[in-house]
Structures are given as C-alpha cells and as structure tokens.
Fold this sequence. Notes:
Blueprint: E1 5-10, H1 19-33, E2 37-44, E3 48-52, E4 55-61, H2 77-86, E5 91-95, H3 102-109, E6 114-118, H4 122-128, H5 133-150, E7 153-156, H6 159-166, E8 173-175, H7 192-199, E9 204-209, H8 219-230, E10 235-240, H9 246-255, E11 260-264, H10 269-278, E12 281-284, H11 293-300, E13 305-308, H12 313-317, E14 321-324, H13 328-339, H14 343-354, H15 359-369
Parallel strand pairs: 1-2, 1-5, 2-4, 5-6, 6-7, 7-8, 9-10, 9-12, 10-11, 12-13, 13-14
Antiparallel strand pairs: 3-4
Amino acid sequence: MSALRIVRLANFVTPSSGGLRTALRELGSGYLAAGHHPVLIVPGERETDEETAQGRVITLPGPVLPGTGGYRVLTARRRLREVLEGIGTDRLEVSDRTTLRWTGEWARRHRIPSVMVSHETADGVLRTWGVPAVAAGRAADRINLRSAWAYSRIVCTTEWAEREFLRVGARNVVRAPLGVDLSRCRPGRRDTALRERYTRGADVLLVLGSRLSVEKRPGTALDALAELRNRGVRAVLVVAGEGPLRSSLVRRARAQRLPALFLGHVADREAMADLQAAADICLAPGPAETFGLSALEALACGTPVVASASSALPEVIGDAGVAAADHATSFADAVQTLLARPEQDRRAAARARAELFSWENSVAAFLSAHDAPLAKIPAPRRPDGAPR
C-alpha cells in the first residue's frame, strides 16, 4: 500500500491545550515518519495552511464557545467538506465525538475509512457537568451508538474507555494506548533548588497539571491540600494550567489562605518536565479522563500520581500511584500513603511504569486502526537516544 493522506480533525484545541494537543502533535509526527501524509484541521481565528513537524496543519475559522476559556469549534460544514474533498482524503481521524460526528457519515458516503478517537467518556463528561448518573448513562449510550455506526472504527486508549462502547454492543472498537516522551520526561531532571523555590520551607510539593475546567475537577486538588494542611502535613500546591475556573480557584485559595501557586499555562515543555520532576506527588483529579497524558509524563519524571478512581488513570498508573475517591479525605489519604513509601522506591516505580508506554508503539497502534503500513516507523529508542 502506498503512502496515505490521513486527515485529522479536532475541536477544543487552543495554544494552551494540554493532552489532546500533545497527542495530535506526537501522532502526526509519527505518521509523517512512517511515510504518510498527515493533515490536521483545527478551528482558529482565521484560515491558515502551513507545513509543520507534524505534517500539514490547516486552520479554519471557528467561533469561540462561551464559558470554555477560548475553545473554538469547526462549524462551517460547507467549507470543511470543500477542504476534505479538495485535499484527497484517504483516511479520516476525528478527535471530537459530538460536534464533528457528521464527518463520519460524510466519510461513509465517500467510502473513506474513518476513525473516531475517544479522548473522554461521554457519560463521565455529562456527570461532571451535573447530569444525574442514570440520565448521563442513557444519553451516552445514544451518543455512542450513533458514533459506532458513523465511523469505521472507534479507537479507545484504555480498556476503561472501551467499556462504554462495548456496553452498547459496538463491534468496531480497537484499543490504542497513548505514549510519553521518555527522553524529555526523566527522573534526572529533578532539581533540589527548583523544588525548594516552590516549597519555601514546606515538606511536600504537590503538582496539578490540568486544564482548569469543570470536567477536570481541579477544585479537588485544593480540597486535598486543605485536608492535608489540617492534618499537619506541610504541603504546597503548584498548578500548571489555564481555564475558565482559574479566577474562582485563585480567589478560593486566597480566602482559605492555602499555599497554592497558579502558574497559568506552561508553554515550555522543558520547564513543565522540570516542574513534574521536582514534585513529590502529582494530582490527577479528573473523573472522566480516558488516559491522562500529564499524569503519565509525571510518572516518566519519577513522580508518583494520585488519580481519580472514577477515571481510567488507575489502569495507566498501576502500582506507581494510588487511586482515590473523588473527595478531599480520600485524596489526602492517598498522598500520605505514597509519602510513606521510601522516596527512592516510589520514584523508581513511577519511572518503570512509564517505560511501558512509548509514542512509537502508540503510532503503530493508531496506524493499525487505519489499516496503514507500519514498515517505515522508526525503531523504538531508549531514553538516552540509542536504538533498543
């Protein structure tokens, strides 16, 4: 089979986006390295078209969704159809299970194999927005049935994410885990001086790397910090991320006199890795996460993770972290459980867990979902850059 033009569509991506933006970049670079022609189409302020390290990136004008902190969506269907047909789409990959589901039907009519990537569970997102569990489950089932019909395949990054499709009898689901940059994210980045700069004499440095939006539940991190301080644990929290909840979280931290520092979006990936390596514990409170790239990056830096037991992260972090119920007491208990382990042991376990995931393997799995050849994918490399 010759090289394929793999067109990828994504909404809800901004310059300050986290995991989704990382996944799009790494997969696009991998497709390009494998000899294919990846094209990413995302919404933006104006129309642009450029060649990048992850392949061709096209931006189409899309309105900002109010209350989302700058997220835009592709709403001009006619223009998007023109682009899809004009560039000669061989494969379609969609990272949006709601507003772009019509593109699966478009691909079906044009006999183009299509893939939808499930980055968050439908019922999980609905529940975080306050929809009762029973109603959320029923709505999610309807959404997932339509998605399974519209696309040739549904790609889930974890078994946990796969369950909601299997629940409705979908038979076109495949699993493809995401990966982590083991060279950039490494325990050797741990800097005592950087840690002391953030702790300012405290004993424990907690880090939250997350978009500050409702579905991510960043408030749970502040709840856990308050509970730990009440227990006499001298902990501080550094928050790396932007989003519509930032101002309310800052006000709350000040009102409660909690030692929480809000950095905003950390665009420098090297600086973010330094922060993750300096931390003692990473918090991942999002209950609807289907993978959790920020948490995996923390593990690769040698930092164990406390994750929401409602999410897929317990499957990802394994024994390199602790799963906690979605409330302050459980998160604080989990933090103390990890701190009770010898530092060298808990950091070694975190790194060992992360080494099970690589972007090379992820690219291979995604290309397999596209029925695309794998022969040109570079051989996996060790963290020091040498071939394995």
